[in-house]
Design brief:
- The complex is a heterodimer of chains A (352) and B (254).
- Chain A has 17 helices and 10 strands.
- With 352 residues, chain A is α/β, with parallel strands linked by helices.
- In chain A, strand 6, helix 7 and strand 7 form a beta-alpha-beta unit.
- Chain A is globular, with a radius of gyration of 24 Å.
- The termini of chain A are far apart.
- Chain B is built from 11 helices and no strands.
- Chain B is globular.
- The longest helix of chain B has 34 residues.
- Chain B has a single domain, classed as MetI-like (MetI-like fold), CATH 1.10.3720.10.
- Classes of the chains: A alpha/beta (352), B mainly alpha (254).
- At the A-B interface, helix 2, helix 5, strand 7 and helix 8 of A face helix 1 and helix 10 of B.
- Chain B: One of its GO terms (cellular component) is plasma membrane.
C-alpha cells in the first residue's frame, strides 16, 4: 500500500525510474548508519582520556598535570590526549560530540549548556582569579562614563565576562543590558592588541595573563574588577565532565580527580617549583611566572564559590530557564569540591 | 523549468522526512540533532520578534553595498585594462596575486587596518567579488568579435560611445555570469566574516545570529539561521538571476 503510493508519486514525477530513487535512498540511509557507527566506535575505547586545554593562567593546575605526568603516574596504561581548543563554545561542542571527556571553563557557559539539557556536571573548582575591565580612555573612570559608541571587548556573549558586566550594570544602573549594544566579541589576545593600539576598542574585560600585561602598560587602567562586579569572591574556572564519562569510566574519572587534587596542592605548596615548570609553557620568565601565580586574588582551590549567585542572576535575567538546581544536579557525587548543599554554600559565601 | 521545482519539492520533502525520522528515532541526542518541529518553532519565533528580520536586513544591505561598489570597481578595472596595455599588465598582476586569496585569510590584517565593524565586512566582500568579476569582464571585453569594433570604427564612435553602445552590451553574458560568481562568493564571504568579526551594536547579520545561537547552546536556532541562508541563496539564484538572464541575454539571443 505504502509502496504503491510512493510509486504513484514517482510516476507523477516521471523521467527517472523507481529503482534509481530507491538506490539513492538506500545510499542515504547507509551513510546515516555509518555516521552513527563512527560515533559509537569512538566512545567504546576505555583506556583513553581526552582533556581539553586552554591558554590562561587560571588553567595552571591542568598544565601541571600535563607537565608532571600525574595521570600516567596513576595508571601507566592510560592513554591521555590533550586537545587544544580555542574557546569555550568549541570545547562544549566537542564534549557533546563525545570527543572530549574533561574540560575547564567558567561557571556561566557551563550553566547555559546544563540548562539546555547537556548531561554534564562539575568535577571540582580549579581557580579563583582577578578579572578586570581595562580601558585605554582617559575620560572613562567608571562604568557611567561609557558612551554608547565606546566598544567593550570580551570573549563572547554568555561568557563569565559578559555576565559580570551585566551584574555590574544591573547593580549600578538597574539595566542589565545597558552595555549589550556595544560589546565586541574578541579573543583575549586580539582584544589586548586592539586595546593597546587604542583603536576600535575602548575597554577589554581581561583575565590573566592579559590582565597583568595590560595593567603594566601606561595609559591603561582598571575601572571594574571581577570581584566588584560579582559582589564577592567567586570561582573563575571549574572542571567539568560528562555524565557518560563518569558512568562508563569510573576508574579513569577518579584517577583524574586524584591527579587534579595533586596538581592544585602542588601549586599551593610549592609555588616556586610550579612556576619553574610552567614558565616555558606560558612563554614567561620563571620569576614573572611566580609573580603571576601569586598575584593578589589568584588562588588555586578546588572549592566552588558563587555557583548559587550565578544561578540566581542568570535565571532572573533569563539566561537560564530553570531557576533552582539541586547541588547534586550540578556537581558529581565524587568530586573535589566537598559535599555542600548549594544554599549552605551561598550562606558561607555571604559571611566572607 | 516546472519539473525542476517539482523535483526539488519532492526531494526536499523526502529529505525533511528522513531528517525528522532520524531526530525522532533518538539515534542522536536532541542536543546534536534537533527535530524540524523545534527548528521551525525557533525560526518562527525569531522571525516574529524581529531579531532575525533585523539581521537579514543588515546582511542584505551590506552585501548590496559591497556588490555595488565592487561591480563599479571591476568595471573600471576592466575598462582601463581594455584601453591601456600598461594598466592591463598591472591589473593582471594584481588579480593574479589577490584572486586566489580567501578573504578570511586577510582577516588579521583587516582587523588591524579597518577595525572590526561594518567596514571590515565590506572590505571582505569587495575583495571576494572584485577579482573574479574583473577577470570575467576582461574576458568578455576581449572576446568581442572583430566586426563589432570595426563597425564602431565605421561609425566613428568615440571611446565613451563605443563603451556604452558596444563594449558593455556585447559582453553582457560574461558580465552576468561574473555577477553570479560574485554573488555566490560574496554571500559565503559575508556569512563567514560576520561569524568572525563579532557584533557591532548587536547587529551583526545572519552569520552573527548563528554565532550567537551557538554560544547560547541553541542548536535549533543555529539551524534556523542556516535555513534562512539557504532560502535567500535559492531566491537570489533562481529568481533574481534567472529573471535577469531571461530579460537580457536570452531575450537578445546573445
Amino acid at each position: 500500500m505504502y509502496t504503491e503510493k510512493l510509486e504513484k508519486i514517482f510516476k507523477e514525477i516521471g523521467s527517472v525510474s523507481m529503482k534509481k530513487y530507491i538506490t539513492i535512498i538506500i545510499i542515504f540511509l547507509s551513510v546515516l548508519l555509518l555516521i552513527s557507527g563512527c560515533v559509537n566506535n569512538e566512545e567504546a575505547s576505555q583506556q583513553k582520556i581526552t582533556i581539553a586545554e586552554q591558554y590562561g593562567l587560571a588553567y595552571a593546575p591542568v598544565q601541571l598535570i600535563k607537565e608532571l605526568n600525574f595521570l600516567k603516574a596513576a595508571d601507566p596504561d592510560l592513554e591521555v590526549e590533550w586537545k587544544q581548543l580555542s574557546n569555550t563554545t568549541s570545547i562544549r561542542e566537542s564534549m557533546l560530540a563525545g570527543e572530549v571527556d574533561i574540560a575547564f571553563m567558567a561557571i556561566p557557559p557551563f550553566l547555559i549548556a546544563r540548562d539546555k539539557g547537556m548531561g554534564w556536571k562539575i568535577i571540582s573548582g580549579l581557580s579563583e582569579s582577578p578579572l578586570g575591565l581595562m580601558t585605554n580612555r582617559e575620560d572613562i573612570n567608571s562604568l557611567a562614563d561609557f558612551k554608547t559608541d565606546s566598544k567593550i571587548a570580551l570573549p563572547q556573549p554568555g561568557s563569565i565576562q559578559h555576565i559580570l558586566l551585566s551584574m555590574a550594570a544591573e547593580r549600578e544602573f538597574g539595566e542589565v543590558d545597558r552595555f549589550d549594544e556595544q560589546l565586541l566579541t574578541m579573543s583575549h589576545p586580539d582584544a589586548m592588541n586592539a586595546l593597546l593600539a587604542g583603536r576600535e576598542v575602548s575597554a577589554h574585560f581581561a583575565s590573566p595573563p592579559y590582565l597583568f600585561l595590560e595593567s603594566r602598560e601606561e595609559g591603561i587602567k582598571k575601572i571594574l574588577s571581577g570581584r566588584e562586579a560579582f559582589g564577592g569572591d567567586f570561582t573563575f574556572i571549574v572542571g567539568v565532565s560528562t555524565e557518560q564519562f563518569y558512568g562508563e569510566q569510573p576508574q579513569n574519572y577518579s584517577n583524574f580527580l586524584e591527579a587534579l587534587g595533586k596538581a592544585i596542592e602542588f601549586i599551593d605548596q610549592k609555588p616556586d617549583e610550579a612556576a619553574e615548570i610552567l614558565a616555558d609553557n606560558y612563554n614567561l620568565e620563571p620569576s614573572e611566572m611566580r609573580d603571576y601565580l601569586s598575584w593578589s586574588g589568584m588562588k588555586f582551590t578546588s572549592k566552588i564559590k558563587g555557583l548559587d549567585k550565578f544561578i540566581d542572576f542568570m535565571a532572573a535575567e533569563s539566561y537560564l530557564e530553570k531557576n533552582s538546581y539541586q547541588y547534586s544536579e550540578l556537581v558529581f557525587e565524587e568530586n573535589l569540591a566537598g559535599e555542600k548543599a548549594i544554599s549552605e554554600e551561598g550562606a558561607s559565601q555571604n559571611e566572607e | 523549468m516546472k519539473s525542476k521545482y517539482k523535483q526539488r519539492f519532492f526531494w526536499g520533502i523526502l529529505l525533511a522526512f528522513i531528517w525528522q525520522l532520524t531526530a525522532v528515532s533518538g539515534i542522536f541526542s536532541e542536543l546534536i540533532f534537533p527535530g524540524l518541529d523545534q527548528i521551525s518553532i525557533v525560526l518562527f519565533k525569531s522571525l516574529q520578534d524581529g531579531t532575525l528580520i533585523k539581521q537579514i536586513a543588515f546582511s542584505l544591505s551590506v552585501i548590496a553595498q559591497g556588490l555595488f561598489l565592487a561591480t563599479i570597481m571591476a568595471l573600471l578595472f576592466a575598462l582601463t585594462a581594455y584601453f591601456s596595455s600598461t594598466a592591463a599588465g598591472l591589473i593582471d598582476t594584481l588579480t593574479a596575486l589577490a584572486h586566489p586569496l580567501p578573504g578570511i585569510a586577510l582577516m588579521p590584517l583587516i582587523l588591524i587596518w579597518f577595525g572590526s565593524g561594518r567596514m571590515a565586512i565590506l572590505i571582505v566582500i569587495i575583495h571576494s567579488v572584485l577579482w573574479p568579476l574583473s577577470l570575467n569582464l576582461s574576458t568578455g571585453f576581449n572576446s568581442i568579435p572583430d566586426i563589432y569594433t570595426l563597425i564602431a570604427k565605421n561609425y566613428r564612435l568615440n571611446k565613451f560611445e563605443f563603451m556604452y553602445k558596444i563594449l558593455i552590451p556585447a559582453s553582457l553574458p560574461y558580465f552576468i555570469s561574473g555577477l553570479k560568481i560574485a554573488w555566490a562568493r560574496s554571500w559565503r564571504a559575508l556569512i563567514s566574516a560576520e561569524m568572525l568579526f563579532g557584533a557591532i551594536n548587536s547587529l551583526g547579520g545572519l552569520g552573527w545570529y548563528i554565532f550567537q545561537r551557538r554560544v547560547f547552546f541553541d542548536l535549533p536556532g543555529v539551524f534556523a539561521g542556516i535555513i534562512v541562508i539557504i532560502m535567500i541563496g535559492i531566491v537570489v539564484e533562481d529568481f533574481i538571476f534567472a529573471k535577469l538572464e531571461n530579460k537580457t541575454v536570452k531575450k537578445w539571443g546573445a
